[in-house]
Amino acid sequence: MLRAEPDTKYVVYPSWAELSYKWADLPRLLANPLESGYLDPTKGWWALGYPDTIAPCSFIDGPFGGGIVVADHVPRMWMPALILQKEANLCRAEGQVVSSDKLPCWVGYLEPYDDPLLNALEGKQRTRNYLCSATLENIEAEPESHYWVIAYEGKSEPDGLGDLPTWARCFELEVSRAESISQPLRQETSDWFRNPKQSFAWYTVRNYKPLVGYCYALVVYLALHLRKIAGRRMRSMHMLASIERKPNIRKFWPRR
Questions:
Q1: Do residues 149 and 202 lie in contact, with contact meaning Cβ atoms separated by under 8 Å?
Q2: Residues near 208 by beta carbon (within 8 Å), at least 6 away in sequence
Q3: pLDDT in tens, 47-81
């Protein structure tokens, strides 16, 4: 079972994000936000409710740029978020549509601001964001199994899909196409993947850490990267496993 991580925040910095605060700079910037150059050090941040100490962050490098920021015991007023939100929305991962108190983790991503009027005034090109829904799904039929399911439009596989196992090895995961799906699991998930315009590729995942936030954050990072490579045909990515608190999200939008 993947254990819940209610006290850990994961923030995905997409591989395609173009921000002035580069991924390589984040360890320095987030460790001391008031000396980052992005915040006014003379402002009364403590009076606004921000703690006088900054919880340390760790960083998972992505193989294609960007990566994942990991912060434990994050307070409600988290000063590093002020830097991350200077040029991007800090969004909860797509597909998290159930009540937040039922979710076993907090995983989000940075969506660079796209303001056409501001871009025109500053002479900049429009920001290109490659967003993709990614969900986490508890399964009962195979409590020891862990799957990824990729939903894409059409019958032929989109670009990048065949490279997914290689990409996963960068995170020390063993991923392979599922040779078959058991009848009990097929029956349990029969209402989740019903869109007649979409095809669904199943992958078996091994050698993973039993932490739901960590595993889900990797899925979000890969889904956002695959969306750029595959284009609009890439529709969504889903993590299926035995998960503490038993979240189920896909069943709320089976034809999306």
A1: yes
A2: 146, 173, 215
A3: 999 998 888 999 999 999 999 999 999 998 999 99
Q: Which residues pair with 112 in a beta bridge?
A: 88
Residues in contact with 133: Cβ distance below 8 Å, sequence separation at least 6, in sequence order: 94, 95, 223, 235, 236, 237, 256
Q: Is the pTM of this model over 0.90?
A: yes
Shortest CA distance to 130 belongs to which of 104, 159, 98, 157?
A: 159
How confident is the model over 179-200, as pLDDT tens digits? 999 999 999 999 898 889 999 9
C-alpha span between 68 and 243 (Å, rounded): 21
DSSP-derived secondary structure for 143-187: TT-EEEEEEEESSSPPTTGGGHHHHHHTTT-EEEE-S---HHHHH
Angstrom CA distances, 191 to 117, 125, 136, 244, stand at 42, 42, 15, 22
Element (H, E) at 236: strand 234-241
- The secondary structure element, H or E, covering residue 225 is helix 212-230
